[in-house]
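Worked example

This section walks through a single chain of length 168. The input is the sequence exactly as stored; nothing has been trimmed or padded.
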Amino acid sequence: GMRRNIAVIITYLLLIGIIALFFYITVPSLINQIENLINNIPAIFENLNNILSRFNIDLNDQDIQTFFQERLINFSLSTINYLKIIIGALATFFIGLSGALYLSFDFPKFKKKVKEKIPFRIKTKTYRFFETFLPFIHKYVRGTLLDSLFVFALSFVAFLLIGLNYPI
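Given that input, the structure is written out below as tokens.
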């Protein structure tokens, strides 16, 4: 068979390649959608003004302008908060990836050290517990990730096919 180190390197290169391909496909579309949305804002406000004028509501009214300015500020602040969350999630992901990479290369040593730390009187029960429940936990996590990926991909493709603006 293939040596462990080479298999780990190939696996991580494939994972990084898939992630890079995902960003290569989605980021230009996301940027294009944001540009389109920004370019369409005047037309959206014009349409809104036309609709509201039927009800004798003027968008040039100071109260309405203040309302929209407050909403725009709130939107900007929430966008900044979302960016912070995304950056934090990416940092957490790469820290986790680093730990996973370390464990991938040194897992037998790591496993041996963990086994040494378990007190002798509960070793048998602990081993039995992990042998019983880890396969279920692994299947649950794998199934949840696959479901999420499937729903995301299906939704993304469906929204693109029906021509929905801003599907991301």
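What to look for: Residues 158 and 164 are 9 Å apart (CA to CA).
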